[in-house]
Amino acid sequence: MVAVSVSRTWCEYKENPLGIDVAHPRFSWRIESDRRGVVQIAYQLQVALEDAEFAEVLWDTGEVHSDQSMHIVYQGPPLEARQGYAYRVRVSDGEGSWSDWSPTATFETGLMEHGAWTAQWISSSETGEGSVPCTMLRKTFAAGGKIKRARIYATSLGLYELRLNGARVGDGLLTPGWTSYHHRLQYQTYDVTPMLLTSSNTIGVLLGDGWYKGELGWEGHRELWGNQRAALMQLHIVYEDGNEQVIRTDGSWKTATGPILMSELYHGETYDARLEKEGWDRAGYDDSSWLPVVEIKHRKDILVAQENHPTRVMNELKPIGLFQTPVGDTVLDMGQNMVGWMHFKVRGQAGDIVKLQHFEVLDADGNVYTANLRKAQQRITYICRGEGEEQYEPHFTFQGFRYVKVEACPGEVRMEDFTGKVIHSAMELTGQFECSDPLINQLQHNIVWGQKGNFVDVPTDCPQRDERLGWTGDAQVFIRTASFNMNVAPFFTKWMRDLAADQLPDGGVPFVIPQVENNIPMHSATGWGDAAVICPWTIYMCYGDGRILEEQYPSMKAWINYIRSQGDNEYLWNTGFHFGDWLALDAKDGSYLGATSNDFVATAFYAYSTSLLVKAAEVLHKPEDAAHYRELHNHILKHFRQEFVTPNGRLSEATQTAYILSLAFDLLEESDRPRAARTLAQYLEVQTFPPKPEKEYALRTGFLGTPYLCHALSQNGYHDIACKLVLRTEYPSWLYPVNKGATTIWEHWDGLKEDDTFWSADMNSFNHYAYGAIGDWLYQVLA
């Protein structure tokens, strides 16, 4: 290895991105050396047209004396739409020489402007209430001449799958993803150059309901954003002679339905292989019985290029067991609570059925348990074509499960015929944690798999029941842990833009993003709405991303101003509905709300988010704002102490979470911190009779107290207790689920009780990442 080299490069967090709509993209790189302690002291970055091979450089930074290797902003001539660019970088470590140029990397712009969309939205004349068969669209066209480059730009109302000349286009799933559909709709870009023929070609599009039109939320509502699936697509073919041909969706396309009779996110998919239209996505297919499409009116000014990493198949798992339950059900065990679906092979007669139901856990007797799925069916039904071996996996649904009940299957059920396809947003693993304790290592495994299963285009609360919504509170408590494990910056950039889009005119923040209005009319709970401030600040801290901080700054301010406008005291938040320390163990019987009062928790988060807003204003060089919100923060602290702290430094709330938040958010006078930390330690003690020789400690915290618990202890002289809490194996603890066989994080500390009965059927997810926030302490403190 040379003294120093550039080993990897990124543009907008991605390697060689295709179809970006960023006018001033940012470049980042990583250096390597055969010596220790090498630091970059200068760099040079060049950008050229992709075909020019730097013979003509569009933009050259020259030699810049800086150690910055993240987010170098393009400042050259304006970028053109649908144009490929190349870039390279070299660095100096101050030892008198420069590295070689990095390998050439590329990026390509998308359509850039809304006016570039000349295609029309097209749909079928589908009718009927509830889920109807998925839509098929097709168009045949001729290409003429030698093709230099071909790109498809596509999106849909609902979900789409794109096909060209008999093959699937791209590997992205659940496209175009879930956004605030009234404000923002992503489109994807595909390089189809090698897929085109110089003769006749056929494009096919499958459309499903997805989040846009399908059932969403636990009240059974449908069509929350629209009542009609539609596709929008442009294929741009550039020939070697410079001519260009554009194939677009318009009234000349044709439509039909096919084998996908039902496909719903919660309920699964029904597929009748006897209804397959063989060759429908190839030239030469007889579509004379197909109907003409209808053009519909829908906005195009909301279209944005893909922002996050697409959802893809990221792992494959084989079953580890096949068994009969005590009541006689046939069940496959995947060995891991996963999110995705089953791919299977089957041989049967025409009309034979394969029926699979997916679920997370077995009951105390070892039988199938589906009550915690609530109304979600998670069922796949496949009707055989009857022609030798058939293979199938679903299109517009996903399941959360460890076990699969085989309700029907022709012939013998064989493990080798089934493969679990694990899907999640295609984020690169960036951090690892391992230690000498196998239980802690399993905890880390569970944290990562909880992140995989709940980062399916948006940060969801659970992937199995009739919910799967982008709860803001869950996202903000876990974002720091998530940022260590994976590159989540593009993922949260997209989601935070949706948060800003869905934010109410008065600054309030919906409980879930994207907002699901019909299901959750209420908004703006403490610790949930604070995602508007905590998430962009965390991404800035973890990735040095000043742009997302600047983008979200108006949203951050609006949230703080919203809180300030509540109630009759602008420095306390003592009004409105709050989830509080959700699911804390000190809650009253029958309640989900922890014992710490809403007034206390809300004012604590008000102070914390305001302090982060001050820091953001300083980073963004807004001194007037910084001074204004610093004064506000000081007033909040003063009133918090008057309201909740006695003259002797005791809190008015005798709960673990009250002391945790007071310490973690720096809400106390410095002289009161030692007593508060000592009291927290006392509250964590397990009282036994007779007393044991060595003290035991246990938490009673919920969603808002738990993430800060060990940090508050370690930062205030009680690191030993923090370690004991994490190493505790008895209920309640992080390792109790591990010892009960958990492979992901649970929603409840006792989702599965010690006698193997269940906490509850109405809200008991076994893949729910919030308590996985302990990962942040493992990485930042313990490691």
Question: How many individual helices?
Answer: 14
> Tell me about the biggest sheet?
10 strands, mixed
Percent strand: 25-35%
What's the Cα radius of gyration?
28 Å
What structural class should be given to the helix and strand makeup?
Answer: alpha+beta
User: How much is the average pLDDT?
Assistant: 96
Oligomer: single chain
Topology, number of strands:
36
Overall shape: globular
**How far apart are the termini?**
30 Å
Q: Could you list the spans in which at least 5 consecutive residues all have pLDDT below 50?
A: none
Helix content: 10-25%
Q: What features would you describe in this structure?
A:
There is one protein chain. By secondary structure, the protein is an alpha+beta fold. Helices cover 23% and strands 26% of the residues. The strands form eight sheets. Strands 20, 21, 25, 26, 27, 28, 31, 32, 33 and 34 form a ten-stranded mixed sheet that branches. β29 and β30 form a beta hairpin. α3 packs parallel to α5, α3 runs parallel beside α14 and α11 crosses α12. The protein is globular, with a radius of gyration of 28 Å. It starts with a strand and ends with a helix.
Key attributes of the depicted protein:
36 strands; 10-stranded mixed β-sheet; globular; 783 residues; 23% helix; alpha+beta
Short summary:
With 783 residues, this protein is of the alpha+beta class. The protein contains 14 helices and 36 strands. Helix 9 (656-664) packs across helix 11.
